[in-house]
Amino acid sequence: MEMSSDATTAASAPLVTLRNVSKRFANGTLALQGMSLDVGEHDFISFLGPSGCGKSTALRLIAGLTRLSSGDMHWSGASTASKNGKTDRDLGFVFQEPTLMPWAKVFDNVWLPLKLAGTSRDAAAPVVQQALEMVGLSRFADVYPRELSGGMKMRVSIARALVTHPRLLLMDEPFAALDEMTRIKLNNDLLAIWREHRFSVVFVTHSVYESVYLSNRIVVMAARPGRVIDEIRIDEPYPRGEDFRTSTRYNAHCTAVSQSLHGALHGVDIDH
Q: Mean pLDDT of residues grouped by 10 in the chain (272 residues)?
């Protein structure tokens, strides 16, 4: 089978570079120590590790939601750089909970980032509709979040994150609370959107199986203090589907990642 170019894009110039980044909170907790990472154009990177290893903290640092304590972070090609080196529209963020406004219809929830940027509802309408079409919710623009299932609410959250056409999508365990069938469907749909629109993704998960299925790179982290102990490439072609999920190659990757995660749980740095 011919290798898709999707799995080999990490060789391009990094979109975001972290060098020896650490984060210490005001209470003295060292959440991250010496983290270095390159996020390439059209990468799909998963952060995997035990609770308390700094996965979410690393995401928030990249997003500019918290300040790093030491080290350097650089965004390449940011057009109107802010003080943290990025523009607001360079990234979208999907949290574990959909965090939708319950009083607003789906359209208005997706419009919110554009509204905050000064785009009128009428001007935003085609872009919002396109974002809803991307996640399969074009018929649900005029309903309230309470009328949607958990999976549909998460689709709205993804549409809201993508409505500004970000170069980088940050996702903090977005599917953790969903049932297995819904999670598999959203995994497949996310990969299809990612392949078509060619943004980069940094995805936090506790699932070995999800990380292997989605990613071209898996960053394994250890806790206390949070640090990268391994990086594993998943050199498998896209699109991925049930054939990959049931293959011996998939099982072999899951075994290798599980072994690395076992090392993370015991604080063992991996030397390949």
A: 44 83 93 94 95 92 93 73 50 94 98 95 97 96 97 97 96 94 95 96 96 97 89 96 96 96 70 50
Q: Which two tokens stand for residue 243?
A: 């054939």
Q: What is the pLDDT of residue 8?
A: 43
Topology of the domain comprising 5-105+149-265: Rossmann fold (3.40.50)
pLDDT at 12: 59
Where along the chain do its domains lie? 5-105+149-265
- So what's the pLDDT on residue 6? 55
Contact 119, 148 (CB under 8 A): no
Query: 42 to each of 19, 89, 97, how far by Cα in Å?
Result: 20, 16, 25
- CA pair distance 22, 18, nearest whole angstrom: 10
Pairing of strands 44-48, 217-222: parallel
Number of H helices, E strands in the chain: 8, 9
Which letter does DSSP use for residue 270 in this model? P
**DSSP summary character for residue 269:** P
Phi, psi of 264 (to 5 degrees): -65, -40
Q: Specify the length of the chain in residues.
A: 272
Instruction: Write the DSSP assignment of 10-47 as a string of letters.
Output: GGSPEEEEEEEEEEE-TTS-EEEEEEEEEEETT-EEEE
Give the span between the Cα atoms of 251 and 39, in whole angstroms. 26
Identify the helix (H) or strand (E) that includes residue 92.
strand 91-94
